[in-house]
User: Fold these one by one.
Assistant:
Number 1:
Amino acid sequence: MAIDFMLRLATIIILLSNVLLGAGQLIAQNDLIPTSSIVFIEGRDAAGAVLSRGVGVIVRKNFVAANYHCIAGMHTIAVFHNGEEKEYISDGYLSVEEEKDVIVLSVPGITGSIATLAFGPFPEDGAEVLLGTQPNPKQLRIAKGTVSGTKELREIDLPQVISREIQDFTGGPVFYKEKVAGFCTAGYLDEKYYAYIIPATEVRRLMNRSFIIKSFISLSDESPLNGSYYQKNLMDNLNAVLWMKLPNAERLARKKQKMVLISVYTDWAGWAKLMGNNTYGSKRIIRYLNENFYSVRLNAETDDEILFDGKVYSRNIGSDYHSLAYSLLEGIMDFPSTV
């Protein structure tokens, strides 16, 4: 009887030790993340009502990186730490990449540690990462996620991430080995939900691209990248045409039976630039092209060779009018070197 009791007690102690050890590992793993570098983002309208929320990280003194869709079209951007009442108001942004859903905000006086941005390749397929999420207002949660292959989006292969702990997460920093590996962005493509990871190298590039603080007024107030509308459908909410390389467009067109649209342009024609900006800046045209075509832009004067339909088209003849599109349609292997 005493032996049986001792065996049961030993079993309970072992089980309890395993539970505590598991919890300790999770806490230790989360402790590797400098949580003082993580901040909450709130986008508010002119009346002060909160319209969007997100999670960002301090990437430099007085600068915070976050998802663009959290602040698009907002009147005021407030930044604060988990569990703290004090908030800091952003006075503008340093740089933004709207298509990749990343922005670097200027936040004067923001306190906290500076997060380390990862260099080099992204974690391999199957690697475990940690996600900084905000399931409820002013509540930080560090959830586990797993890198699960890549998916081609906007001409590059972006890592995907899945998590059993939190479903349909739409943004926030991704941590790997104590560093910020990137930012999540999400949307629906081909009727499926995907969570992509924009690598930290994009944030670093934005930080080095500009040294001037710009007003939010310079961002379009009509940008559809905001809150639940952005999350509803990725294709509906892109504020730019999804340009891709010709071989990629050709390959995708064969799979999806979509047409390929090729826009030929030159760098020097000012009136052509104006026409192109007006055309491809229209929200209706953007949506129509993204839904119905695989769109390609070709510079008529700088693309030396073009691979199309298994043939190589070269710039071998002299100056002439635009004839690249005609050459592709008619199978003429040479097109003008200048136009």
Number 2:
Amino acid sequence: MAVILELFDSFADFFSDSDGGKCPDVRAVVPAGRNDRALEAKRELIDALVETLNALVQRRSCIYIPTQGMDECMFYSNLGSSPQDRSTIRAVVETSVSKFMCSDAVFLMALIYMNRLERSNRYLLVNKFNVLRLFTASILVACKFAEDEIYRNSYYAEVSGLDLKLLNHLERTVLNELDFRMYVDANEYLAVAMV
């Protein structure tokens, strides 16, 4: 796997003014003059995220399924109950990278949050039934913590294919499980970036 750190060297100002309602693709958010390099960096980011999420899913031989009524149940898909549940990991990652309108560092922070969630709650161990919702909720929390400009949750819900009420619940659960500790120090960031 290529060193991911290079992808995050120039994440400042990748995205300029946003108009809120539109969902541009990756080509539309790359500043002029940097198209080839920036598009290649986005493709590498997408490939690295897909590879990482697939590896997280593959390493689970035992899955803890939460019982009805537990907050963690919301992370488990209901086999096609939302458009996202019918998507592949690659499709969700591509949509998130191109339409969440956030820096590349946010996606790395989301992976760090997912790791913290796994350590705090056995029902949030990444598996094929919860990976998409865990990833989406972790991106949302990371985006709100790290970015200056954010959108309403209705935008993120529309882009991700999740119901707004569900996305709000997922966000609250992630924040509570993280005990509202979203700060990622340089050592933790670099350790994940170098994988």
